[in-house]
Design brief:
The chain has a single domain, classed as Purple Acid Phosphatase, chain A, domain 2, CATH 3.60.21.10. About 15% of the residues lie in helices and about 30% in strands. It contains 3 helices and 11 strands; from the N terminus they run βαβαβαββββββββ. The longest helix has 13 residues. The chain is globular and about 40 Å long. The mean pLDDT is about 95.
Length: about 170
């Protein structure tokens, strides 16, 4: 089973629409958003996704009440979501993952914030001692394209814990 993973959409409605249409075309059942929607009107665009959405707030998500009214599954990071028997530890920033983490043995850690896509392992990201050494680390990059000039998202296969970065052609 594959899921979609997005971060840092930053009110870019064109990019959000492309991303949602792309994920809907794949008929994915789940979407994880790692924060920085920015405003409720941008989060509303994600409601066109035909599956379930799990989300966390990012550091630029100021209107939290409006975002919560739009996406009732959004909450403060770090959070653990279980999908298809896999535990996914989701945060906006890697700095939110630490000793207070709600899950010490997730199958994957997913976060955004840097705006640059990364597929790695937890120990390569300085998380050794907090998480299992072979825990997958995934940053889908930025959906908005503002810093990298790339509009990216990730697809995560929960069966074999393999991820791929997808660059949208916008």
């Amino acid at each position: 089973m594959r899921i979609g993973v997005i971060a840092d959409s930053h009110d870019n409605l064109t990019a959000i629409r492309y991303a949602v249409n792309y994920l809907n075309a794949l008929k994915l059942q789940w979407l994880v958003h790692c924060g920085d929607f920015i405003a409720p009107f941008a989060a509303r665009e994600f409601m066109l996704f035909r599956g379930k959405i799990f989300a966390v707030y990012g550091n630029n998500d100021g209107e939290k009440k409006g975002l919560k009214n739009t996406l009732d599954t959004i909450d403060y990071p770090p959070r653990v979501f279980e999908i298809a028997g896999r535990k996914l530890l989701v945060a906006h920033s890697i700095d939110e993952i630490g000793a207070a983490c709600p899950e010490k043995r997730p199958d994957a850690v997913i976060c955004g914030h840097t705006h640059f896509a990364t597929i790695d392992y937890a120990y390569e990201q300085g998380l050794e001692g907090m998480l299992e050494k072979d825990c997958l680390f995934l940053n889908p990059g930025e959906c908005c394209g503002y810093l990298s000039d790339q509009y990216t998202l990730a697809l995560l296969d929960l069966t074999d814990l393999k991820a791929e970065i997808v660059e949208l052609e916008i």
